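Q: What residues go here?
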């Protein structure tokens, strides 16, 4: 047997079986499905003019570049860093098991709930009312406006006032009263 050379079209009406490699030096067009029982190896670029459907896992040994929108119906698992160059929008919750670092401002449109301690290494600025359901413990506290206590005010150390102390009702002292300057009483004094 020797080679067969055709100078025109080869038309086969039924199945064709090749027991070795099929080499095509030009373009090849298939009007129907192509089924490969083993690997399909493409040494150059592959262009698909329609959808690529993969029924099992797909492995890429290099980068994946997507020019349009990507929709994933299942979970996405990343074993390395996720880098997003622009805004990221999440329509549901974000759960982070490790430390989270924000290099810019962090804006919450609703409540900020912290189940454990919150540590601030700089100033806390609150534009409106602040409600504490428990004790406020800290160092020196400066209030630029009025302080209103709906219950008792307990001071374990000295209390220093740089201006007038006004008491609208009775004042009880369980120990001595020492006055360094003049004392003026507008009402009766009972001793």
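A:
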């Amino acid at each position: 047997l020797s080679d067969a050379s055709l100078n025109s079209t080869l038309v086969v009406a039924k199945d064709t079986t090749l027991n070795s490699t099929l080499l095509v030096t030009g373009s090849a067009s298939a009007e129907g499905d192509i089924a490969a029982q083993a690997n399909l190896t493409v040494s150059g670029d592959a262009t698909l003019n329609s959808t690529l459907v993969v029924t099992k896992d797909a492995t890429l040994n290099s980068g994946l570049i997507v020019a349009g929108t990507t929709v994933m119906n299942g979970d996405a698992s990343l074993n390395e860093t996720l880098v997003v160059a622009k805004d990221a929008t999440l329509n549901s919750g974000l759960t982070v098991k490790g430390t989270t670092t924000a290099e810019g401002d962090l804006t919450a449109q609703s409540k900020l709930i912290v189940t454990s301690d919150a540590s601030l290494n700089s100033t806390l600025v609150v534009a409106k009312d602040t409600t504490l359901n428990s004790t406020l413990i800290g160092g020196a506290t400066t209030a630029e406006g009025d302080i209103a206590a709906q219950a008792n005010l307990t001071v374990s150390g000295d209390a220093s006032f740089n201006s007038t102390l006004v008491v609208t009702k009775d004042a009880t002292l369980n120990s001595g009263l020492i006055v360094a300057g003049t004392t003026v009483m507008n009402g009766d004094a009972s001793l």
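A: Context that may help when evaluating the design: The chain has no helices and no strands. The mean pLDDT is 87.
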